[in-house]
Amino acid sequence: MPWELASKLDNLAPSRLEVPSGSMIKVYYFADGRKPEMEVRLQELFGLIETPSVNEGKNKILLHLLSPGYKPVQVTQDLNSFWSKTYFEVRKDLLSRYPKHSWPENPLTAEAVRGAKKRKP
Q: How many CB atoms lie within 10 A of CB 43?
């Protein structure tokens, strides 16, 4: 494949996308035309309002939101709606199961994190 074409393909359909925590998360594409998907821990998306997309913003990613233990919590293609409607129920459940992790009341203004909260000395 010529370099120009490979570069364009990587721009339109990147193999990984950076999330607010700084992690580069793998994007899965499917030959049958299903929407591209990502599996990402919920805390790594704090502060992100819009669902990530590919193909110059034309195709939203189907997000598989995971707990800190990498267990599925929610599947959404509308991150903004998840934050405003579903997050608070999910937060209640995860707060008791993962107390060392960050579960802010306002996920849109919270800092995205990769792991547990840092302990204060």
A: 28
Helix (H) or strand (E) holding 93: helix 87-97
- Within 10 Å of residue 79's Cβ, how many Cβ atoms? 22
Q: How many CA atoms lie within 13 A of 8 on its CB side?
A: 5
pLDDT digits (tens, 9 = 90+) for 44-54: 999 999 999 99
Domain count, the chain: 1
pLDDT of the residue at 45: 96
User: Which residue range is the domain that position 25 belongs to?
Assistant: 14-97
What's the distance, CA 35 to chain centroid? 15
Report CA torsion sign: 56, 110, 84, 114.
positive
The Cα–Cα gap between 95 and 35 comes to: 31
Is residue 22 in some structural domain?
yes
